[in-house]
Amino acid sequence: MRLLLILSLPFLAWASWDGSAEAQGIPAKPHGRMEQMRPDDLEEVLKRAPAAFVPLGTFEHHGFHLPVCFDGIKAHALCIKVSEKTGGAVLPTFFYGTGGGHIGYKWTNIVAEEQIVPLLSGTLDFLARQGFRVIVLLTGHYPGEQTRMVKRLVQEAGQRHPQVKFLGLAEPEITTPLPGDKSSGDHAAKYETSIALALHPDWVRLDKLVEGRDPDGITLPETPRKEGTPYDPRHPLYAIHGQDPRTAASRETGEKLVQEIVRRLARLVEEALQSPAPAAAR
Ligand SMILES: [Zn+2]
User: Fold this and answer.
1) pLDDT tens-digit readout, 135-182
2) Residue 96 contacts by C-beta under 8 Å, 6 or more apart in sequence?
3) Number of structural domains, the chain?
4) How far is the CA of 29 from the centre of ligand 1 (A)?
């Protein structure tokens, strides 16, 4: 027994560091990645924490230092962290998004809204029919076209399923800009890179931000080019919009942002789970 306790100590130390419900001795509500859960696991989620999370992203050049599907993998990682607090099922990431300033960039696939909406609204209907009471659409890709689509999708789904609370948002809506900044949203710059450093440092390769790449090798004929700006493929900050991540991003900043996102979204989900009023106010 003593041996077992000693062997458990490193785990306990790790567990208390991670701040999860399990770490604090609170039995975790059932949660998981939906594609890996069996029907009985999902029924348990419906009984004890009927929340579903749909992470949204897109294929989009995120500078040479971040993965091209960063928006989606970021949203998925954040949904997993929230579900560890609230319980719930996290769906596979939906990697098709609309809008933004990178249309024509290589490794970018921006899709027309009318191609996306039927599948997403069908997914919301499917989740409502299974018995989820709170359904979250978290988009890591957040140009105006995408956020307006998300708001409209949840509003219309709320009218079809008044027994369900739908929440649709992007993470800058639940983060506080750092002193001196107007917004906590950007594209592959200070904020997104900091979040990446906090979620998964291996995703970030700041050493890849070098100048002088051959434009012909990294663009398509339709790719916009503008010398001396981040639209210039030779520029080290190509495709990045916001503050230079090499100097402005940090893991510490990212950890503050991630903590705030997880705390605030978990609270929204828990409040919604506790008060199953019609979704009209959303
Ligand atoms: Zn992004």
Assistant:
1) 999 999 999 999 999 999 999 999 999 999 999 999 999 999 999 999
2) 58, 109, 111, 115, 116, 119
3) 1
4) 30
User: For residue 280, is it within any domain?
Assistant: no
Strand pairing of 51-56 and 165-170? unpaired
74: CA distance to ligand 1 center in Å?
8
Buried b (16+ CB within 10 A) or exposed e, 128-138: beeebbbbbbb
Residues with CB under 5 A from ligand 1 (ion): 71, 192
Q: What tens digit of pLDDT does each residue of 82-100 get?
A: 999 999 999 999 999 999 9
Residue 166 token pair: 């739908």
In a domain, 256, yes or no: yes
Q: How many residues does the chain have?
A: 282
Contact 132, 50 (CB under 8 A): yes
* Of 95, 159, 96, residue with least CA distance to 124: 159
Q: Which domain holds residue 164?
A: 28-275
Q: Distance (Å, rounded) from C-alpha 145 to C-alpha 53? A: 21
Q: Find all residues with CB under 8 Å of 37, minimum gap 6, and list them.
A: 45, 89
User: Which CATH number is 204's domain given?
Assistant: 3.40.50.10310
Tell me which residue of 137, 199, 141 sits closest to 168, measured CA to CA: 137
The predicted model scores a pTM of: 0.89
Contact 71, 97 (CB under 8 A): yes
How many angstroms is it from 62 CA to the middle of ligand 1? 6
